[in-house]
Design a protein that fits this description.
With 582 residues, the protein is an alpha/beta fold. It folds into two domains: 431 residues, Rossmann fold (3-Layer(aba) Sandwich); 101 residues, GMP Synthetase, Chain A, domain 3 (2-Layer Sandwich). Helices cover 29% and strands 23% of the residues. The strands form six sheets. The chain has a nine-stranded mixed sheet with strand order 2-1-11-10-12-13-14-15-16. The chain has a five-stranded parallel sheet with strand order 4-3-5-6-7, sandwiched between helices. The radius of gyration is 23 Å and the shape is globular. The two termini are 34 Å apart. It binds adenosine-5'-triphosphate and magnesium ion (MG). The site of adenosine-5'-triphosphate has 25 residues, from strand 14, strand 21 and strand 22.
């Protein structure tokens, strides 16, 4: 960590006092049960995540607050208050109830980011069913795997995606109904077995008695990103809302008058924990855009909607950096108060850059589909050490453990990142993979599969996925450190490193890079990059070979797939590529 520490002002000097205003003090006295008191619960001690996100606000002055600002394609714009969403999600719960959906049934969505996606997800949770959001850019194999595995009974989709659904429908005996949302009014007539969303909603009552779910009832399942292997269906329960609410309040620092934007799609856990449940349980207005990433569009959205809190991911941030500071100058981004990143290690270079161009740095935080909510984070009040994912969230106890998870390692020692369990939002199983689930727990610890170390002050530093760590003559080399050094070179936009077998040293490091605008691949440039990083790294970690690619293979959630680069390099089978971005 060679970058200068980013110092934070005293709480009193923030334009808005951070919700978490005394990290050590609050951490010492923290109990998850105290967060329960800030939620409402249903009569009889039942807990329903959808109720906590939407309906409880109807008893307060938040009921008329805008919950969702939707910025659609074709210049369409819509706004929904918490009352609107309560009514519409009641209707949707009635629609699926009339189809015979019962508590525990799986109901999946396969839709673009239109308001009806959000209405469906909340409606399904109200009905006590288990919602499974599928990313709309998935192809046939990806949806087939997930719909077969989950045994989904109902699928909500749109005319534009129906061909994909019919291509696999014969393999889905459990799928009984298809609800079709025709947001863009394309020519469409429902076929047998299809239900037109608009018509069913028009006929449904807006009165609904929310299912009396227990906090331990299954509520949502998300397939992991598929970065290290075949995606697993991590199942979460209604109690997860306790984690969503608390972290949205204290890490994202959401305040009542914020305009919040999470760029993740609800097909990934960030897009529901922090694109639906966390912000709405805090009664905050959020922006949703139907349109995908372009640098201009993103900055334009922030400026037009006066976004105050922003949550995005390293791949997008590196793209923004690729276009440089001049692009930021074309827009008024002064509304941004607090900006956050998750999903992959955030290179120190990116933290430093954001501090310069946005006046506030990206706050990196770490968690997984399995953990359900943020576990390690940088906070508004805490100094940032660029390259570190921050310190444990209140009530979270991570540790760096030795190989057989029997001993906790000390500050400075690298090992397996583990979490003391339980915590409210942790996954309760991998769907149909009980043994794999059980294998992730040992000696009272949940084994995350990531390697990390922590410093004396309790800041955690990511090293790499356990699968991706490279063994050079007995020295373990973490990809993140090498990749961070590579992206510091002015020509390098993105980098991924892998270990390739070596007869003498076991493995050596090979780097793949893509270039920034205006740079051309050449032998000379490769040599220059190699020499540049060799000066920054020790001899084991310095790449022996550099290959320049037009782009690096990524999952659809934007994570670099090192396993694919390795399989291609070694001529091995590519494994599951259902989440590969084309
Ligand atoms: P799969 O489990 O299918 O291989 P995945 O692990 O990428 O996919 P997710 O649950 O979406 O699926 O991602 C969680 C992982 O992402 C973490 O285990 C970690 O490796 C990485 N990650 C998330 N946030 C950070 C961060 N701030 N810094 C470093 N790594 C991060
Ligand atoms: Mg994982």
């Amino acid at each position: 960590m060679n970058y200068e520490i980013i110092k934070k002002p005293k709480c009193e000097d923030f334009p808005k006092r951070p919700n978490l205003d005394d990290y050590e003090g609050m951490r010492a006295g923290f109990r998850w049960e105290d967060i329960h008191k800030e939620l409402d619960f249903l009569p009889g001690g039942c807990l329903n995540l959808a109720y906590e996100a939407i309906d409880r606000h109807l008893k307060t002055d938040k009921k008329d607050r805008v919950a969702l600002i939707w910025d659609g394609r074709h210049e369409t714009k819509e706004r929904y208050t918490f009352s609107d969403l309560s009514r519409l999600t009641n209707q949707f719960a009635n629609v699926i109830g009339s189809l015979g959906v019962k508590k525990g049934d799986r109901v999946f969505t396969y839709l673009d980011r239109v308001p009806e996606l959000y209405i469906s997800i909340i409606g399904i949770v109200k009905a006590g069913a288990v919602v499974g959001p599928l990313f709309s850019a998935f192809g046939t194999e990806a949806i087939k795997d997930r719909l077969i595995d989950s045994g989904a009974k109902v699928l909500i989709t749109c005319p534009e995606l129906l061909d994909n659904v019919y291509a696999v429908k014969k393999d889905l005996p459990a799928l009984e109904h298809i609800i079709v949302v025709n947001k863009h009014n394309v020519p469409y007539t429902p076929k047998e077995g299809e239900i037109a969303y608009e018509r069913a909603m028009a006929e449904a009552s807006s009165e609904y008695q929310i299912c009396q779910t227990d906090k331990e009832d299954f509520c949502i399942m998300h397939y992991t990103s598929g970065t290290t292997g075949k995606p697993k269906g991590a199942v979460h329960v209604h109690e997860a809302i306790v984690g969503h609410y608390a972290t949205a309040k204290y890490v994202l620092d959401l305040h009542p008058d914020d305009i919040y934007w999470c760029t993740a799609d609800p097909g990934w856990v960030t897009g529901t924990s922090y694109g639906i449940f966390g912000p709405w349980s805090n009664g905050v207005t959020q922006l949703v855009t139907e349109v995908g990433f372009t640098v201009h569009h993103w900055y334009e959205l922030i400026a037009r909607h006066r976004v105050t809190v922003w949550y995005t991911a390293p791949t997008a941030i590196r793209m923004l950096m690729k276009y440089g500071e001049k692009e930021t100058k074309k827009h008024d981004l002064s509304s941004l108060r607090h900006i956050n990143s998750v999903g992959e290690p955030l290179n120190p270079e990116a933290v430093d850059w954001s501090k310069q161009v946005f006046r506030t740095a990206f706050h990196d935080n770490w968690w997984q589909t399995e953990t359900g909510c943020i576990q390690i984070a940088n906070y508004p009040v805490q100094d940032i050490k660029p390259g570190s994912m921050g310190r444990p969230f209140l009530g979270v106890r991570p540790a760096i453990m030795n190989t057989d998870i029997s001993e906790e390692l000390s500050a400075g020692e690298e090992g397996n990142l583990c979490l003391k369990y339980p915590w409210p939002s942790m996954f309760r199983t991998y769907w149909n993979k009980k043994e794999l689930y059980e294998s992730r727990f040992k000696n009272g610890w949940y084994i995350t599969g990531d390697r990390a170390w922590r410093d004396e002050e309790g800041y955690f530093v990511f090293v790499g996925r356990a699968d991706d760590v490279i063994n050079v003559a007995g020295h373990l080399v973490g990809p993140f450190e090498v990749e961070s050094a590579l992206v510091e070179h002015e020509a390098v936009a993105e980098a991924a490193v892998i270990g390739v077998p070596d007869p003498v040293r076991m493995e050596v490091v090979k780097a793949f890079v893509s270039l920034r605008e205006g740079y051309e691949a050449s032998q000379h440039l490769k040599l220059e990059i190699k020499q540049f990083v060799a000066k920054k790294l020790d001899a084991n970690a310095a790449p022996k070979e550099i290959e320049i690619l037009p782009t690096l293979p990524k999952t659809r959630s934007g994570k670099i797939m090192r396993r694919l680069l390795k399989a291609r390099e070694l001529g091995l089978p590519e494994g599951d590529t259902s989440t590969l971005e084309e």
